[in-house]
Amino acid sequence: MAAQPHRIFPHGSLEPIAPGLWRVVGGLPIPLKRNMFVWRMPDGELLLYSVVALDEAGMTALEGLGRPAIMVVPHPFHVMDAPFYAARYPSLRIVGLADAGSRAPGLRIDATPEQALAPLGVRAVAAAGMKYGELCLDLPLAEGAGRAFLCTDLFGRNEGKTALMIKLLGPPGGEGVARIVRWRQIADRAAVRGFLRAQADTPGLRIAAGCHGGVVRDDAAGFLRRAAAGL
Q1: Which residues, other chains included, contact 157 with Cβ-Cβ below 8 Å and sequence gap of 6+?
Q2: Is 36 helix (H, G, I), strand (E, B) or coil?
Q3: Average pLDDT of the residues in 77-98
Q4: Type and span of the H or E element at 137
Q5: Cα(224)–Cα(30) distance, rounded to whole angstroms?
Q6: pTM metric for this prediction
Q7: Which range scores top for mean pLDDT: 1-15, 37-51, 87-101?
Q8: Regarding beta strands 215-216 and 205-209, do their DSSP bridges make them parallel or antiparallel, or are they unpaired?
Q9: Rounded CA separation 11/54 (Å)
Q10: Helices marked H in the chain — which ranges?
C-alpha cells in the first residue's frame, strides 16, 4: 500500500524578522498558529527550528534561501512535520534533546545540541523547570545585529485577531507564559522564573520569539522579565 501524503496545513510565506532570520506562520486543526524559524548559518546553509511542512511553492522558496542542513527538534510536542523534512532531505542533520523524538516513533536524532550547534556560535539551552525537554536557542544575527532567543511553548505574545480559545488558554494579558503551559508543562515555577531572568541578561539580545504568537522586537529583555514576574 502506498504511503499517504503528508498533510500540509495552510501557512504563510517566509517572513524576514532580522538579518539572516525568517519565520513561517503555519496552521493547525485548532485555532492555534505555530511558527517555524529559519536561520542562515555562517556557511550559507539553513538551520530549521520547529518545522512546519510547506506546500511546494513554500519549499521552493525555502530552498531559495539556502540548503536545509540542520533541523532542530526543540520539543516532544513539536514533531508533527519533522518526518516530512527528514524524508525530503535525507542528509538533514537532526538535533534535539534526549526526549525530542519520544512522540514521533522512528524519528532519528543524529546529534546533541552541543555537538551540532556550539560550533556555529549558537548557545543551546534546555529550559529549566519544565516537565518536558524544551530546547531554546540563542542565535547570533547577521550583520552584527545582535542576538535572537527562540523557545517553543515557554513564552509567547498574542498576535493579530485572537480566538476565544487562545484568550482562555494563552498568556494572561496577552503576553508571557500561557495558562495551558503553566498547567501542563511547568514542574517548578521558581526555576522557570530564574531561567527567563537569566536569558533576559543575554548581551546583545534583540529579539525574543516563541513558536506560538508574535515576534518580540521591542525590548526583548523587558518582555522576558515581565514573563518571569507574571508566573
Answers
A1: 171, 174, 175, 210, 213, 214, 216, 223
A2: strand
A3: 95
A4: strand 135-140
A5: 27
A6: 0.96
A7: 37-51
A8: antiparallel
A9: 7
A10: 56-65, 82-88, 113-116, 164-169, 179-184, 189-200, 220-229
